[in-house]
């Protein structure tokens, strides 16, 4: 199963909104078939492994990291009939599929087909691999990772707004990998105005080349203040941009942005600002299963206040800024009591290029 999980991970960043799945066919102690799901519309891992195994699948064991599908509401044929028809004697499944169209039904269909089953082998590892997919299926919203680069005293920019570069080059390269793996990246308009980021995913030692997959770039801009010459609006890099705004935004600005090929999405507002829960539900409806938040202190505070963040990753540089006028990671007002502080669970720390990386769940 560990080998099947390694195969599944090869689909990281390309399978969404489908889960990552890996499969192995074993017969007489020998691997006769391997497969992993690459992207929507492509064959599933089980089918690819069975195709490779051919007649050698008969009497063998199929190891698969997710319950095989049995429904027709998708672009590819269901896997259960292919498994039963291959003559596979036994199927070992890491986890059930939380999708209500599958959950338990694939297992039941295999049993009806006379296949011996074992369910739950390396379940925790399999669930961790597809944490974004599982969250999206359960909540209809993307799994949100909030990332920030900061100093030891928690500052993300100087009083003048300078933030490039607080963290090391290895940390920045890792962030570009995070972008390539995410379905979408979200910032507030304040970040666009102060930093003019492109928010593309780049690869290579100098981060000069664009990654093959680019995330959807989402700007929360209640009054449509995004400049028409902002780098985030450029389409030459193949990345798409969505600006979330409110009904009170100027119509002329809306038309000007749309002429640039940008999608302007009107979202319900709360006190004149885009409702983030509504926005995330809309992103989830569009198949965005994972969202990377790379905003400034205000969007960080708004996302955290709305309890929309599932995981936090902080890149902490060995430097101090000090001062009351520097930009802290979380804006707004601080709670009056320590008992109101947000506490991370399952915290992991590691070093990277001289920085300390701290990650935990909320």
Which regions have little confidence, pLDDT < 50, spanning 5+ residues?
none
Mean pLDDT: 92
Q: In order across it, which strands form the biggest sheet?
A: 13-12-11-8-16-6-17-20-19
Number of helices: 11
Q: What distance lies between the first and last C-alpha atoms, to the nearest angstrom?
A: 29 Å
Could you estimate the helical fraction of the residues in percent?
25-40%
Strand content: 25-35%
What structural category do the secondary elements indicate? alpha/beta
Q: For the CA atoms, what is the radius of gyration?
A: 23 Å
Oligomer: single chain
The geometry reads as elongated
List keywords for this structure.
362 residues, alpha/beta, 9-stranded mixed β-sheet, 5-stranded mixed β-sheet, 11 helices, elongated
Topology (SSEs and partners):
Blueprint: H1 2-8, E1 22-27, E2 30-36, H2 45-53, E3 61-64, H3 79-86, E4 90-93, H4 105-112, E5 116-119, H5 123-129, H6 131-139, E6 143-151, E7 155-157, H7 169-181, E8 184-188, H8 189-195, E9 202-203, E10 209-210, E11 216-220, E12 241-245, H9 251-259, E13 263-266, E14 269-270, E15 273-274, H10 276-285, E16 290-293, H11 297-305, E17 311-317, E18 327-328, E19 345-352, E20 355-361
Parallel strand pairs: 3-4, 4-5, 6-16, 6-17, 8-11, 8-16, 11-12, 12-13
Antiparallel strand pairs: 1-2, 1-3, 7-18, 9-10, 14-15, 17-20, 19-20
